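Assemble and predict.
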Amino acid sequence: MHNETLKSMLVELVPLAVFEEGSEWPTIMIEPASWKSLALLLTTTPALQFDFLFCLTCVDWKTHLGMVFHITSTLHRHTVVVKAKLNRDHPEIDTVSDIWKTAEFHEREVYDLFGVKFLKHPDLRRLFLTDDYVGWPLRKDFEDAVNMIKL
Amino acid sequence: MSVSDNKDPITIESQQTEPFPGDVHPTAGGGIVISKLDEVINWARSNSLWPLIFGTSCCAIEMMSTAAAKYDWSRFGFEVARATPRQADVIIIAGTIVNKMAPVLKRLYDQMADPKYVIAMGACATSGGPFFYNTYSVVKGADHIIPVDVYIAGCPPRPEALIHALITLQERIKSGATREQIKVEKF
């Protein structure tokens, strides 16, 4: 499906959707609270069938944390990007690991490096770093006096 | 363990290495080889070094290339890369060592049988390299964990550089100048 037709379908599905312009794929900006219901819509709507979450990541914008989800449909060959702004002090968003199984490890990685709490995640603990590690190293304000040598 | 009294290790290293240590005294019907046992042992050890398969990042690709047909390190006596430290003589630290990997590296080194030698391949293993500044996870040089005999510059080093390091290690072994040999000599 072409981006324009996909976009008009998404507008039909989510009338209040806010789109971000100027990227390769249609990009929807959402509130964190509505993420789970949107994710369910994207997978279950027969004309969309977004069955593959191929990228789940986080960006520290200093003012907030931005979650970015790249989802594609292996059947219809179309892709959508979903972005959500999280509160930097209490970053919380629903897990989608029950919808896309791959999200389980991706969310653990984001938790490990950014400290985003994924609500109802089945096994939210550190992935790369040791269990006793303190801090979220990919946040812009992260300091490690022992290991870091500042340039 | 013997470094010849009148030669220091550096001059020995720079010389063309002899095929076999010792002198041949011709006698009727043949000859007698006079040599030092230590030198013969070092000569033997230096020409049969079994590396441990240990690669943590892109340097490992160059190491594989060095082992494969085109560069073929077995020409110089490095062969049969072992998958267990119990059977390996030399560990080539091919890649970045992160804090989480450090205890594993230490354990692998401890499990290797004496005599054992260490080559730090590339910038990461030498000093942390591109991860020296502003990193929370990388060990700034493998020599913080285990003693290193030969360092190689490069990111990653070319196979020729690795072969040069291997030959340098051989010459150090022959001249009794590896850390292992120096440590033994002190006792």
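Confidence is low (pLDDT under 50) at residues 7-15 of chain B.
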